[in-house]
Design a protein that fits this description.
about 300 residues, alpha+beta, 2 domains, eight-stranded mixed β-sheet, five-stranded antiparallel β-sheet, about 30% helix, binds adenosine-5'-triphosphate, binds magnesium ion, SAICAR_synthetase_CS, EC 6.3.2.6, SAICAR_synth, ligase
Length: about 300
Amino acid sequence: MASSTAITKIDLGADGFKKIASGKVREIFEIDAQTLLFVATDRISAYDVILDNGIPQKGALLTQLSAHWFKLIASWLPDLRTHFLSTTLPPGLPSSLPFQQLQRRSMLVDRLRILPLESIVRGYITGSAWAEYSKSGTVHGILMPKGLRESQRLEKPIWTPSTKAEVGGKDENISPEAARELIGEAVARRVEEASLAIYEKAHAYAAERGIIIADTKFEFGGDVLTGEVVLVDEVLTPDSSRFWPADQYEVGRSQVSYDKQYLRDWLTSSGLKGKEGVSMPEEVVAETGKKYREAYEKLTDSKWSDIA
Ligand code: ATP
Ligand code: MG
């Protein structure tokens, strides 16, 4: 059982590295002009609101899961460059910091110029894609076969990009055509090919381990010097993907979410859905933590050892 308390804020202090951004879950620090340190906190959001308390070790679990995928992707697609450098902390951190905690939740990455696009791949029709299809028979403007049912597996995974909104904004689904206009034909083709290739490999890999990756979002950077397209951000975590438990999968209805179902159900049943300033009770924290651990263990074929 998790013994540690959740880490929801990370400050490396005056002697540490400069924080350059803070997302819903991660804090980003600058190491130097070429290198960033991503630190995942234990914060959790549901229905677009961040809960007051966190899930102990969630950040470490997600960082280690992402690192696992980066290594797998390097073996599957050796020609695709990624920003992943290591999960070892650089020297120069103040000794007052909880080193072991930080270590497991940190990732050193190459700093890149990010393409203004969320590269989504969908293998199943759900969420905003299902909503659009139900209305117009299309998904991101792509005409789909008639008679699809909710959560149905698509004959072939599709590339369905969206814009990358500014902080606080909302990403907008766009057609592959519009994406090509946004980032250019050649880069778009490379991003599409890479995204589909990773998704197909990862889907098969996860399916063997009892998890359906229904859809996922990648981000890419461009190397201004070489013109190369580089896979960045986090990859194939429950935060960037829809994971479904394979043994509960059923076409024709919405699916339970692997990680946040317990939390969402509790928020809904207690009338707190969408409210700010909510703290999860111990039971919700424990049950949610269990799911993150389970996803990590299934997908990495290894046991998670708690950090004190
Ligand atoms: P949220 O995920 O909370 O909606 P967010 O995506 O802005 O917001 P994070 O995911 O915490 O926040 O932060 C990651 C940010 O870093 C993103 O803006 C992402 O595009 C950017 N990023 C990812 N990889 C790199 C990289 N290699 N170099 C520079 N920026 C990167
Ligand atoms: Mg993000």
